[in-house]
Design brief:
This protein is mainly α and 318 residues long. The chain is built from 12 helices and 3 strands, in the order αββααααααβααααα. The protein has a 3-stranded mixed β-sheet. The longest helix is centred in the last third of the chain and has 29 residues, at 288-316. It is globular, with a radius of gyration of 19 Å. The termini are far apart. The relative contact order is 0.13.
Length: 318
């Protein structure tokens, strides 16, 4: 307990110090026509996720060095992108290198090359999807807390796949960030550095769990984000849009912008739905893939019905 108290105090101090740095160097997020917020807010508060991972790395005697190197690279380029724009090519190259370092940490070097290529594409897609979903107060911190909580349960009660301190240290980092973001008037946003860093950590943990058990259905821990992201891309392709450009067509964005639902309420909804899915999944150990398929189907139908009813509101304000 004393370890986590020290971690909390250290990360809280780091976050408060970062606020002063961000304010001094004008690292801010200005609202525009594609934003879901209306106030100028400090950007990059999610740097505390990287620092949390760094604290664990040092406290554990430098566990998972290749993963930590990959996290440092991907967090670094993301932070630079928060301060000043980085070209898509540079970001993609750094993301690929970081992923390969994580794969090496996982011990995937002995697998066929095509397996690594597929994993590289899928993992990069997950990282970017996690970043795209970071658009309203509380959603990244709240959703990550649910996923980490589920992983902590599996690690402690189902199958151990990582040092529990790694998961709980990251949960402390998320709680520190949530104290400043998961509220009606956010003090800070995660920024690319936050969304990408916590996604990279969660992906590392999920990868270790899947490789340990051989059970790919654990990807259900990201079901809500995954269905929203994939179907939004499909929807935009149907509208013949450039999917590389920013937009406000995710379900959570329509809830917050067109339906005027509080950011906190929308974030809580995403948290609750994912938590229920994880709880049902863990309660039915013999039906993991059925749970995965059923969850994706239900979420998919819900997404389609929601868009058929409310997407016209988005078109009306264009």
């Amino acid at each position: 307990m004393s370890y986590y108290l020290v971690v909390f105090v250290v990360l809280l101090g780091v976050e408060l110090l970062y606020f002063r740095v961000a304010d001094h160097f004008n690292i801010i997020d200005k609202p525009n026509e594609r934003s879901s917020h209306t106030r100028i807010t400090l950007r990059g508060g999610g740097v505390v996720f990287y620092v949390g991972a760094l604290v664990y790395f040092v406290a554990s005697g430098f566990s998972f060095p290749w993963f930590m190197l990959g996290l440092t690279l991907i967090a670094g380029v993301s932070f630079v992108d928060d301060v000043r724009s980085v070209t898509q090519r540079v970001r993609l190259v750094v993301h690929f290198v970081a992923m390969l370092l994580m794969f090496y940490q996982w011990g995937m070097v002995s697998l066929p090359w095509w397996y690594v290529v597929v994993a590289l594409v899928v993992c990069t897609g997950i990282i970017n999807a996690y970043n795209f979903m970071d658009g309203i107060n509380g959603i990244t911190g709240g959703y990550s807390l649910v996923v980490l909580g589920g992983l902590a349960y599996v690690n402690g009660w189902v199958v151990p796949f990582v040092d529990e301190k790694m998961i709980y240290t990251m949960m402390v980092a998320v709680l520190v960030f949530d104290g400043f973001n998961f509220r009606r008037k956010a003090k800070c946003f995660a920024g690319d550095v936050g969304a990408v860093s916590i996604a990279f950590v969660i992906l590392f943990l999920l990868g270790r769990l899947i490789l340990e058990t051989g059970d790919w259905s654990y990807i259900i821990f990201l079901a809500v984000y995954g269905v929203d992201s994939v179907l939004t891309i499909v929807h935009r392709l149907m509208l013949q849009e450039n999917i590389g450009l920013p937009h406000r067509k995710h379900m959570y964005q329509l809830m917050a912008n067109e339906l005027k639902i509080s950011h906190v309420v929308v974030s809580l909804l995403y948290m609750v739905v994912q938590a229920v899915i994880v709880a049902v999944y863990l309660a039915m150990p013999g039906m993991h893939y059925a749970c995965l398929g059923g969850s994706v189907a239900v979420l998919g139908v819900g997404y389609v019905l929601f868009m058929r009813k409310y997407f016209k509101l988005h078109l009306a304000v264009k």
